[in-house]
Amino acid sequence: MTRRARAEFVAALAFLAPNLIGFLLFLILPAIASLAIALTRWRLLDVPQFVGLQNFADLLRDGRFWLTLRNTAYYSFVRVPINAAISLALAVLLNRKMIGRDFFRVVLFLPVVMSIVATAVIWRPLVESSGLLNGVLAALGLPGVPWITSTNWAMPTVIMIGIWKEIGYYMVIFLAGLQAIPRTYYEAASIDGASNWQQFTRITFPLVSPTTFFVLTVAMIFSFQVFALTTVLTGGGPANATTTLVMYIYQSGFENFRMGYASAMAFVLFVIILVFTLIQKRLANRWVHY
Amino acid sequence: MKRIETRDTGRLAVGIAYLALGLVAVSVLGPLLWAVGTSLKTYGEVFSRGLAFFPEVPQWDNYVEIFRIAPFDRYVMNSVIVSLFACAFTLLTSAMSAYAFARLRFPGRDALFVLYLATMMVPQQVILIPNFLLIRELGLLDTLAGLVLTRVFVPLGTFLLRQFFMGIPIELEEAAIIDGMSYTRRFVSVILPLAKPALVSLFIVSLLAAWNDFLYPLVFIRTDTKRTITLGLSILQGDLDIRWNLVMAATIVAVSPLVVAYLALQRLFIEGIALTGSKG
Amino acid sequence: MKRTVCALALFTCALALVMAGGDAEQEQSEGPITIDYSFWGNPVAIGVERDIIDAYHAMQDDVRVAPIVSGYSDYHTMLLTQMAGGSSPDVMRIDSYFFQDFLALNALRTIDDLVDRDNVDTSVYYPQGITENTSDGELYGLPWATSVLYMFINLDVFEDAGIPVPDFDWTVDDFVEIARQLTDGDRYGFAIGLGGVSSILPFVWAEGGDLFDESRERFTLNEPEAVRALDRLAEMYAEGLIPEDSITAQTDTLTRWFVNGQIGMRMGAVSEILSTQAVEGARFEVINMPTGPAGNRTTVYKSNIVGIGSASQNVEAAWDFLKFLRGPEGQGEELYMIAKRMSPAIDDQRYWDLYADPTLYPRNVEGNSKIIAAEYGRLLPLTGGWLEVDNLVAPELQGIVSGAISAEDAMNRIADDAQAALDRAR
What we know:
The complex is a heterotrimer of chains A (290), B (280) and C (426).
Chain A: H1 3-37, E1 40-41, E2 49-50, H2 54-61, H3 63-94, H4 101-113, H5 116-126, H6 132-139, H7 151-179, H8 183-191, H9 196-207, H10 209-224, H11 228-233, H12 245-255, H13 259-287
Antiparallel strand pairs in A: 1-2
Chain B: H1 2-6, H2 8-39, H3 43-48, H4 62-69, H5 72-103, H6 109-119, H7 124-137, H8 144-152, H9 155-167, H10 170-178, H11 183-194, H12 196-212, H13 215-220, H14 229-236, H15 244-279
Helix pairs in contact in B: 2-15, 4-15, 5-8, 5-9, 5-12, 5-14, 6-9, 9-12, 12-15, 14-15
Chain C: H1 2-20, E1 33-40, H2 43-59, E2 63-70, H3 72-84, E3 91-94, H4 96-104, E4 108-109, H5 112-117, H6 127-132, E5 134-135, E6 138-139, E7 141-148, E8 150-154, H7 155-161, H8 172-182, E9 188-191, H9 201-207, H10 224-239, H11 251-259, E10 263-268, H12 270-277, E11 284-287, E12 299-309, H13 315-326, H14 332-339, H15 349-355, H16 365-376, E13 377-379, H17 386-401, H18 407-425
Parallel strand pairs in C: 1-2, 1-3, 9-10, 12-13
Antiparallel strand pairs in C: 3-12, 4-12, 5-6, 7-12, 8-10, 8-11
């Protein structure tokens, strides 16, 4: 190591330390503990028994595990791109000078600060078969929709409400990303006669791409862990159509008294998201501009 | 930009933009209005006129009642304390580690970063018991400090800021290097000012996370006066006879500090424009 | 570099400051013993508990009670986490769904020795409550909220349709017929939530089926009697006697429909009497669930448990408080009754007089409850692994009534998993 490299290493260590220490203590340590628990049969109040990979073998044969994994993937892969697109569009709109900009920025952010329970409670009467939403559809001459009572519609409804709640969240992050794009670029483009759309595709989209990458990654990670929204809104129903993996993990751990099994599922979830994130990261090199 | 907006296509675009924004705003405000209406209903009305947007007679007393039945002012205060401390520490420590990840070379950097990313994927539910043991060992059960500590080191902050730091042109820092600035000076006087929008959004993101945290407060806190607002809200729904009018009133009380914080931070965004705009 | 070090030091100091804000664990020395008492509830329910604790504190100076509370939905998670982490409360309330699992894990201490020593008369409780607190012949707690899951009857809807309130010996056939007569346009005869197996067991019992066999060791919901009952419910949905929305409806949604006259009948617990009474002008009665060819005992009868943690270091103090809270001589039951949040667990007219208010609907709650308890009530076949089985069955019920799968296929496909859950919990 050269002197310079060593100095840089020491500096890096100093910069990392405050976060790293807590990170190791409060996240890595418990995560390792949970991985160890995944190798045991543990009913929470007894002494864990080592069972090797038995829990993982059981997982492969557990239809509910695959079903809830499928539901979770459905939720995430549909929800995240739509959510990101809407949030980006709104952020771009609200990044320009316009009348009522602050009003819209605040309004769109309101659902973000609502608790998930409140969100679900607000939406429950709206999506009832005689609720407001079907009333609006009827006024438009459209047939009603069995929002959360049909296995086909329940997940799209949950996704819709999930998006409703979080568009403002990612919009704020996009807005922050848009701030970093120098105004001068747009001014130059305007002078060259570029249209709004051209400005978006040639300046905004490439330059905001680090933010887009961040939003996609984080939204995906959060979506894979969806729990409270489905628990309160549908309880996982009808017929498990909206039971998510983390709901099943929670049930297994705290209701079925199978913490080892729950931890094994969490580990599989962890690996899936990790692989997915790494792929996303690899792909990101092609479209994210630093 | 201005020139384009004066053209017809520009006007059409603006019209469409307002239409879209208006639609989204209505779909957001509609349900929220119902929530406000519910918060002003009587307990009986919640059931007898459940779908109605507004009460027959607004029960402003509901907003007084929630403070009578539980110390909601105290709960809000606790949430403010926990969230602010958690945010401050998150911002500080995350910015530092993000700088290391974004700008400094050290062995194992990429592997460590992947580890940071990876832990975001561990569901809280399975590390709850290990964390409970940890907090107990530290003697921090039933303290707000315990809640702060388990909130600060979320890798999200490091990830978000690293992403933004990497977007800051390296040239800006090179001038500082030539000037012989130390890493600390570069971090404080070059990177941080440029990252203001990112810091603000991280502040909002981590404020929300800390504010809405539920599982840790649930198992760490036992004294009533140390409860956070999310716990207080869940206790309002603690039995089968839930007074939804009060739940909604309490929810609205609970979110108002966040709305105020957001309004205040909004300004910083606009300041951010001027800042980055001039340097870019 | 120096600045970095400074920043680090500053950070550490700040951290230490925040930590110092927390109280250190309180050590017991002289003075009163503090015991932990955990329960669930909302502010009203917590208020009742607080009154009881205050009354207890006023009575003696040796024991102080520290409450540990959460809402019901997260209560057992909180309790389990704290116990797994080595912090078991001294006195704890447990929902009977969890009772056998807690026992299998030695979470509770038997109170037989204490009951014998202090000559506590357990015969004053409704016997079902004692049964629910007993396992392998040993008593593990005193009953809390021994009550039934009623059929709620909306009197306005019934009068409107010209139907009298059913007799106690009404059958499932009568029930279906009444539901049919009540159904009219936007009005439905009946609704239940399908989030758990307790809501459908009355119908299964009426046909002679059950969730488990006599020994509670074998899953039997896939046997013909049970399947017949489930098919019958599915037919009611198909015929439009039960609203489709009820497939995923929560209990407060049912209350809203019920008080608005959108449904004529629903199943509900004692605490739902409270929410229904909250609506001005709501006229309703509570009766038993319909009987069937297999017998009259078709109404779910349930009791929760208040016991002493096996890890308690203060058994005597805990027992003293438990006696006050739930014992025949204690003041607890009286204070609970004054709050009218649940019906008496102790068979004593004094408590019924406090609880039942004949000026309020349901007017016959006392008389009906007593008759149901004596002749129509039936305990759930609770056993270890109950919740896991429940988690398996509930989604299938939703599939069955929506017509997605036949009752037989649905129950057969989960039978092995349900059996495995039972075997595992033993």
